[in-house]
Amino acid sequence: MLGSYEYRDCSNELSVILTGKITMLFPELQVDLQRQLEVKKTIDEVLYKYEITTKETALVTSDIEQKANLYLQCKKLEGLSEKTIYNYRLELNKFSQFFHKPISTINSMDIRMYMAAMSEKRSESTTNTKMTVIRDFFQWLQNEEYITANPTKKIKPVKEPETKREPLTDEEVEILRESLEDIREKAIFEFLLSTGCRVDEIVKIKISEVDWSRMTLKVTGKGNKERRVYFNERTKIILKKYLKTRRGDSEYLFCGTRGKCGKLGTRAVQVLMAKIGKRVDIHIYPHLMRHTFATRALNAGMALEIVQALLGHSNVGTTQIYAKIKEFNVQHAYRQLVA
Questions:
Q1: What confidence tier does 31 reach under pLDDT thresholds 50, 70, 90?
Q2: pTM of the model
Q3: CA 114, CA 118: separation in Å to the nearest integer?
Q4: How far is Cα of residue 55 from the mean position of the Cα atoms in its chain?
Q5: 11-25, 129-143, 276-290, range with the lowest pLDDT
Q6: Which residue blocks in the chain are alpha helix, DSSP H?
Q7: Is the pLDDT of residue 332 over 90?
Q8: Where in the chain are all domains bearing CATH 1.10.443.10?
């Protein structure tokens, strides 16, 4: 009824809000997840003896934005990167603008209507990617008991057309190597090929982080997860030569060529790879180098679990999608182990 009030225990909600407010007041907490968790734990302990309630008018205004902010604060405490939080926020802002009613009243048909509007002029894969955020948001709402049923549970992902992710062949790799025009291009190309790093990982690498004797370093991947990657002798020699000849004194392993030669951006690497491929009419991009690394490693006999660790995949199924094992290697393994 309009004007009626609903009382419920909001201790966890208040805890998340207070943690977020305190983090904003003390910037050093924004980069120290462990301290954030300690702050939240302390607040939880204080609030444990109290029953916290809120007074809100029922069925009057949308509370999607408020719940979305709580959700994002929780995701930040879980360790999601700033970039991921930013992307989640964009999707949830669009979602909150689409509806003008309490989130507890949104049903499966509402979700289908949103999907239909959101999928216009977008590919099936893009639609599914965007819906992943909405699904996770509603699952969180149900887990936190803000809603009794999850309306996205009945919504199936849009069927995507099958696309083959073909890595570079050995011949294409050699053709591309021959087309490289300077030591910087060679350094970036070989590093991507020998490590399997993501483009946003390599631009953050500092020279001081590289262990030249063991030819290894740690990179920070998705979800701020650290992993160790390795590079080969060829890459080491080229990197050393590149560092001796490059301009500027940037602390980063790869830097630009103009002005102060500062840190290289992900877009700059993408443009460079496209430029290299265009010379020999081979379409390449940084992520394709990652696919190629995985495939070459498996075809050389590396165990799938090791490739998974090197790529930083939490699910081995993702690694299998990335890599293509040559048919003759499959046949050879079968003859050795089974026949």
A1: low
A2: 0.53
A3: 6
A4: 38
A5: 11-25
A6: 11-25, 33-47, 64-77, 82-98, 108-118, 124-143, 170-179, 183-195, 199-202, 233-245, 266-279, 286-299, 304-311, 316-322, 327-337
A7: no
A8: 170-337
Check: CB of residue 203 under 8 Å from CB of residue 264: yes
Q: What is residue 173's predicted lDDT score, i.e. its pLDDT?
A: 94
Choosing among 3.40.50.150, 3.30.420.40, 1.20.1530.20, 1.10.443.10, the CATH entry for 170-337 is 1.10.443.10
Which residues, other chains included, contact 41 with Cβ-Cβ below 8 Å and sequence gap of 6+? none
Q: Could you give the CA distance from residue 287 to residue 35 in angstroms, rounded to a whole number?
A: 34
Tokens encoding 271: 């443009």
Average pLDDT of the chain to the nearest whole number: 82
8-state DSSP, 151? T
Tokens of 297: 């490693």
State residue 2's pLDDT score: 40
Separation of alpha carbons 101 and 246, rounded Å: 58
Q: What is the β-pairing status of strands 56-57 and 5-6?
A: antiparallel
Which positions ≥6 away from 239 have C-beta within 8 Å? 187, 190, 191, 210, 231, 253
pLDDT for residue 3:
42
